[in-house]
Design a protein that fits this description.
By secondary structure, this protein is mainly β. Helices cover 8% and strands 53% of the residues. Strands 1, 2, 3, 5, 7, 11, 13 and 14 form an eight-stranded mixed sheet that branches. The longest helix has 9 residues. It is globular.
Amino acid sequence: MALVLIAFSFASGEIAAAQPVQASQNAVPSANIPNINITPRRVILSPRKRSDAVFVFNQGTTPITVDVSLIDNVMLPSGEIVPLTEAKKRGGATATRASAVTSARAGMIVSPSRLLLAPGKGRTVRIQAPLAETGAPAEARTHLTITTVPPPSSGLTAEQAADAAKRGELSFNVQTIFGLSIPVIVRNGAPVAQVSFGDLQLTQEAAQAPARGNVPILIVPINRTGTKSVYGNLEVRAVKGKSAEVIGLARGVGIYTELEQRVVRLTLSRAPRNGESLTVTYYDDEGATSNGKLASGELVVK
């Protein structure tokens, strides 16, 4: 008998799935896949706000147990979120970015460390960071991670294992492990950031099944400088004359302090037409700007 674990992680509102292990013999999929949610999607602490709380909710139909932990991650230019330990093993530019991450784990208290959630029920996790006002503009970060714990009955029974052995078969029990992860930001002083767009590019890519043909993709390089991470929503409007149609939207786009540029590949709802102007706006969702805009740009379709 072998137990195969398939992990999915959610970070900063963006989904990154690990590749599943391929089992070639008698894989038994697990039932009752967990369905959990966590709010808010981001926690920001400072000397004026040293603690906060998040709510973990079981949206599924079966009880689940989850572990609560703090994990340091790094963001790559593609938006991929990678644990620091894995990033350092990759070497090169990825390891260099990992070394630029300032961890906020030291001294941070998270309670409780394990939750038992009944169906349709939730519990609160409290986070506390003992901070001293230094006046220096700086930002540190870690990730509050909620990971499901496989039930004790997830393996094969003795009878099932013995029966498979008699037939000379290798049996697998596929158990899915889910993880929800949100950034916990710790800010001292008054860190700031400046945001702008690089060159916007319009391209096409083959559609994934079951769709056919090509889909329009707008490549949006977002430049960030300063001592603060930024978060917001990207909106693309096709403008011609007095007509303006939203044809692209991406919510929860974050750029962490280890990145000077993140490249977003935004799928558009339709192909832009010749003569249309694509106006791209990056809207702040922290209330850090007076007009709500972090950056804007334009691309004329020819």
